[in-house]
Amino acid sequence: MFSPLRSTLSIPATTISRRRQEVGGLVMFLIGIVLLSYTALTVVAQAPLIGVCNGRVADNLPPEGDVVAFYTANGITKMRIYEADQFTLQALKNTSIELALDVPNEVIPTLAADPAAATAWVQTNVISYAPSVQFRYIVVGNEVMPTYPISHSVLPAMHNIQNALAQSPAVAAANVKVSTAIRVDLLGTTYPPSAGAFADSATAYVVPIVQFLAANGAPLLANVYPYFAYIGSSGQVALDYAIFGTGGRVVVQDGALGYQNLFHAMVDSVYAALEKAGAPNLQVVVSETGWPSAGNDGATPENAAAYYLGLTNGTVTSGTPKRPGQPVETYLFAMFDENQKPGAASEQHFGLFTPDKQPKYPLVKFTN
Ligand SMILES: *[C@@H]1O[C@H](CO)[C@@H](O)[C@H](O)[C@H]1NC(C)=O
Ligand SMILES: *[C@@H]1O[C@H](CO)[C@@H](O)[C@H](O)[C@H]1NC(C)=O
């Protein structure tokens, strides 16, 4: 999440788109009630789709254990953490929170070079906490680009971690998936969404990873930021399209599919790229998305509130135009404002809460 989505710049300026006996009847009636209740329960019990990233690049955040309790207090049942912090892992034991655990970029070369190092990392950070901690994903690398020297190490590290996880029956039974979190910038084309394709310069890096994910039934994780696409578009992307503000109006017509918001368009461009890469059944999980409240163009509390409300009201994550019945598991970035985040000024203002645990957007609910 450090640069605008350059490929969105290619949006052309012109496109801005109900007897017999009494007893029998009573039985039927009771069965009806049971069925109705069952249906209602099924809906209510649907797995929550919304998680929150627990970034801690700050010197003023609550202690790790308090943060875990604060997730639970707010009904947040999925968390992503960026390193294997032992205080957080300890606090997560016996909670109902599912975890996406990152392998930090700088650790990847070691785990790639030596299977024993991967086994040790998995033993210390995963197996020793399972099943009390519900691991969902091991995220091997965040936003690694093909130009980074570590890019050659990502897939070997994924292999070694996958093999190490398989050595624990408890972890294997929990079906923990190994993946990596990409930037949508790996796509050379994102517009229209059906034209989505990985850049030629990225295919040698990303296609073998996609094949690994497909072989293991794991999703591709993608950090999806309509905010950066918006500010990098020189006015070609309309604000209301970026912040779920079009009131149901189709802004981009792409063949038979109509797009009312940029988030769906970006996710579907990734699905299109996966189809072209030979993995039409791979699922996309949005491993980060958010909108800052200050620091750069378009970064206001009002725009951020609209963005997070639009995302979490159940409409958006129920599916995309290209995958209508397929829920999009989505991790909001981030839990708190992070006052030591480097980069653009907006980087420090992505929090859903202030460091003293006040909600910046009180209307946002995390329970779908
Ligand atoms: C978690 O639950 C397990 C099984 O009930 C129990 O043995 C363990 O002590 C609990 N751990 C914590 C940290 O509460
Ligand atoms: C959810 O948000 C979308 C986009 O803003 C909007 O069209 C829809 O009416 C909202 N639905 C509810 C139930 O709030």
Automatic annotation (TrEMBL):
SUPFAM superfamilies named among the record's database cross-references: (Trans)glycosidases
Annotated catalysed reactions: Hydrolysis of (1->3)-beta-D-glucosidic linkages in (1->3)-beta-D-glucans
InterPro entries in alphabetical order: GH (IPR017853), Glyco_hydro_17 (IPR000490), Glyco_hydro_17_plant (IPR044965)
Pfam families: Glyco_hydro_17
Keyword annotations from UniProtKB, A to Z: Glycosidase, Hydrolase, Membrane, Transmembrane, Transmembrane helix
Enzyme Commission designation: 3.2.1.39
The family this protein is said to belong to: Belongs to the glycosyl hydrolase 17 family.
Protein name from the UniProt record: glucan endo-1,3-beta-D-glucosidase
Protein's organism: Linum trigynum
